[in-house]
Known about the structure:
CATH superfamily: D-tyrosyl-tRNA(Tyr) deacylase
Amino acid sequence: MRDMRAVVQRVVGSFVDVLEGDTSERAGTIEHGYTVLVGVAQGDSEADADWLADKVLGLRLFEDADGKMNLALSDVGGSLLAISQFTLLGDARKGRRPSFTQAMEPGAAEALFERFCERARAQGCDVATGRFRTHMRVHIENDGPVTLLLDSKRLF
Length: 156
C-alpha cells in the first residue's frame, strides 16, 4: 500500500526558483509558515489529497505564549509553500539507484497536487507553489528546526 506523502517544515521564510537553461524565475515565496514537499503515489485519490491538506492546515507546530506547540498555521497568519516532489516515493531498499515506480504518473499526480493546494486555499490559506515537472531550487529557512513526515494511509 502506497500513500500520498508530505514533508512539512516550519519556516521563517522559503522560496522556490524554477530553472530553465541559464535563467531562473521566482515561482513562489512565503515568509512565515510551512514549506510542504508533496509526493503522490499510485493509487492515491482525491480523498488522500483532501486528508493531507486538512492535516497540514490543522497541525499545531507554532509555539504559544507558554512555549508549547499549540498554534496552527491560521492562528499565526502563516502561509504555505507547496512543492511537488515525486522523489518522496523513491524506494532505495535495493541497490544504490532509487526506484520511482510507486510514484503516480505525472498528469494524474499534478491533478492531485493541485487538489491539495486548492483545498488549502478553500480554507483561507495563502498558498504559493513551485512549477510541476520543472527543475527547481527550493530555499528553506527552517524554524526550530521543525520537520514532520505525513503519510495519508500509514497505519500504526
